[in-house]
Request: fold
Amino acid sequence: MLIVADENIPLLDSFFGDMGDIRRVPGRTMTAEQVRDADILLVRSVTQVGPRLLEGSRVRFVGTATIGTDHIDLDWLEQQGIAFSAAPGCNANSVVEYVLSVVLLHAERKGLDDWSSLSVGVVGVGSVGGKVARKLERLGFDVHLCDPPRAEDPDDEDAEGFESLADVLKCDVVTLHTPLTRDQAHATYHMIGAEELSLLRSPQLLISAGRGAVVDCQSLSDRLDQPDAPAVALDVWEPEPAVDPALMDKVWLATPHIAGYSLEGKVHGTEMVYQALSRYLGLPVRKKSGQFLPEPALNKVSFTSSADEADALRISLLSCYDPRRDDARMRVAIRGDEAERSKAFDRLRRDYPVRRECSSLKVQLKGTSKSLQDSFRAIGFKIKI
Ligand SMILES: NC(=O)c1ccc[n+]([C@@H]2O[C@H](COP(=O)([O-])OP(=O)(O)OC[C@H]3O[C@@H](n4cnc5c(N)ncnc54)[C@H](O)[C@@H]3O)[C@@H](O)[C@H]2O)c1
Ligand SMILES: O=C(O)[C@H](O)[C@H](O)COP(=O)(O)O
Reply:
């Protein structure tokens, strides 16, 4: 069996080595020629999968080690009888930690003593947005939710209290977690356009961590030229990989589509596709991720009752993930003509440093308040009292 795989899928040999021969190819430029004799195709978000890539090939199973599926022509795969699996939720926690760190830095920049005094609007309340909302609620934030497809779904038992997009855009922070969809009810392509952007004003913060084209980035660039523009944190761009350097200069935090790039998120993505392929082939479905996610023995911090509680939370969260490091790397790397910028964007992603989630950090909280301990638990740290 021949498996053709994006070379940037981690742990290909460890997960798929016993299943067949693996041919690694660059995902961004994958060609029909490279996949023609494959039985299995494994991709990430940068490969467009549809008739142009697969017509005339032997491929019977396509797996994407990602949450998003907007790069896959799902209808065509179904018509062809080609099995498909994504990795829903694999890196949701990583995106949540990106959002929490961005909100923390925003509150700090605004000089707020209590970050949870901010109201947060979550647009798209699925796997990622739902987790963002639950964690923020546990941390005491005033959270508002917008998800019209769920609000209209009669079978969704938890679909309560959803608000309109216009109402949610009144929050201090608005964070976008919808898929990119076109030609369907509540399509999200350019959902945040000139009109919506005119409703967002300084000192509000817009975070975009779903897909770039959910925001009309030309309108965003124009809006950011105005003096009352909101602050913006962009993890996803329109277009990628050729990020517009003028837009990058105007946004507060610029990161190269890495919100989901924790080690845990990447390993779980590969494992979920491996398990789906095992089921498809009728092989035993094993869990292998644990061996690649060791407990980092050195990652321990401790605070006592004398610690400033806000500082303890801040130090711990930012020591796990500080988006300013990714922002700094991106601003240095993205330069030159379109081809150079595209290469730099992909290089930043390919060579991304190992990033562990908060659950990998052991925090000792001797003699601290119950509310601080609850906050650490809500974020996902392991705590020792
Ligand atoms: N930046 C990153 O690194 C990164 C990482 C993971 C996922 N993503 C993106 O985030 C998206 C969401 O992931 P998920 O796991 O939460 O998906 P999901 O399918 O679990 O949830 C998406 C939610 O968005 C809702 N939605 C759809 N159209 C909407 C609209 N017009 N307005 C408001 N809500 C709408 C859906 O009803 C659903 O509840 C993915 O599709 C992917 O594109 C980005
Ligand atoms: O959809 C997802 O899971 C994320 O956007 C993911 O982080 C994309 O990563 P890529 O496949 O582009 O490496």
About this structure: DSSP finds 16 helices and 14 strands in the chain. The chain has a mean pLDDT of 96. Residues 44-46, 66-68, 91, 257, 260-261, 349 surround 4-phospho-D-erythronate (ligand 2) (CB under 6 Å).
